[in-house]
Amino acid sequence: MTERRILFLLREGWAEHVGGDVIQVLKTRDALKARGHTVHVASVLEEGDSSYDIVHITNLCRPYETCHFVKKAEKNNIPIAITPIYWDEHALNSHKSQFGRALMIAKILIKSGLCKIEGKPFMMRENLLYHMKNFYTAYQSRILNSVNAILPNSYAELDMMKNILSQKQNQLIRIIPSGYDHRMFNLDKRMCMDSSPQRKVLNVARIEERKNQLRLIRAMASTDIPVVLVGPVGDQRYAESVFAAMKSKDEYHGGAKYEELPSLYSSMYVHVLPSLWEACGLATMEAAAMGCNVVTSDIPTCREYYESIACLCDPLSEDSIRKSIMKAIQKSVPNELNAGYVRDRFAWSKVAEMTEDAYLETLKESCL
Fold it and tell me: 322 with 202, same domain?
């Protein structure tokens, strides 16, 4: 493929708040650079800047920013690709009250300045959920139906978007999985580390409700197996509930530097990520690459990625989480099957090649 100029547009503050979406973009950037392309990452596209061949955006679940990116790229006449990282907010929060879900969506829209239609705010409690839900999804639908290429991380993600997607003519849809750094996370590196795995359960994730650490702690409370939490606090109130539920055997190590993760994964028998929702669960992928036994949620996206290697659990059931962990901890480590499985499918070099092919097809279609 001829050298191309590619601009990734990320949410504001991405450098200070690095999540799976940021890692996915940065690693794809590095792999595309290695293939000879010029790639920049920013939070702004200046008006009139048409120097890029393609703009690649993410985070359909932050429509207030993403829609702004789309408008700027359209105005500059640049083809747009999106990695949606989409999740169904309403299905995810089905265990919450309707009004609670409405308030959560309202916070997103108020922050974005999108909480009015034709100048009239939605203030009536009985109509709040209906209006907020439809306004939120209307923006998501508008974004999807404006871009030139949609690149979901899984078929499950694409299926979740079917109600807000009306594929337009010449619009490319291509499944491109998320990946991991196979040079940093691999069995050879584990073998070089002078450490024996501990009979502990590791969870690498931001401390927040979606990551479900409270149920994890409660699930293992009756056992003698410690739970080790590693990750920054994303929701202070939720984190306080998690810390209050922890037993003396459990540990919280705060956030870890990215380069410290291989050693952490290598020191544990099991990594568990019982999230209510994940695009792919990057920590699960990295842990598996290091030969850990892995437990993850029995939800469509994780099932698509890991069903053949992971012990799956119901993230809403403490009993299910505990049983899956106890099953996983009986397996030997390092688990070479897990490491080989992710290496053969999800190395960033493979992901970049697939992304490059999608760009090429998008550019061809945009010229028709």
Answer: yes
Domain that holds residue 172: 5-179+347-366
Helix (H, G, I), strand (E, B) or coil at 306: helix
Q: Which of 95-109, 173-187, 275-289, 294-308 has the lowest mean pLDDT?
A: 95-109
Chain segment 190-245, per-residue pLDDT in tens: 888 766 788 999 999 999 999 999 999 999 999 999 999 999 999 999 999 999 99
| Angle between helix 282-289 and helix 20-34 axes, rounded to 10 deg | 60
Give pLDDT, residue 132: 57
- Round to whole Å and give the CA distance between 231 and 256: 6
Q: Do 258 and 300 share a domain, yes or no?
A: yes
Residue 173 DSSP class: E
In this structure, the answer to whether residues 266 and 289 fall within a common structural domain is yes
353 lies in the same domain as 308: no
Can you give the pLDDT at residue 368? 55
Q: Is the pLDDT of residue 122 over 50?
A: no
Looking up tokens 């601009």 gives 7
Residue 277 and residue 224 share a domain: yes
Please identify which residue in the block is written with the tokens 């929060």.
93
Q: Are 268 and 202 in contact (CB under 8 A)?
A: yes
In 262-325, which ranges are E strands?
268-273, 293-297, 311-313
Q: Are residues 159 and 281 in the same domain?
A: no
- State how far the alpha carbon of 174 is from the alpha carbons of 155, 158, 362, in Å: 9, 9, 10
**177: region left, alpha or beta (phi > 0 left; psi from -120 to 50 alpha):** beta
Q: Which two tokens stand for residue 6?
A: 């590619």
What pLDDT sits at residue 106? 52
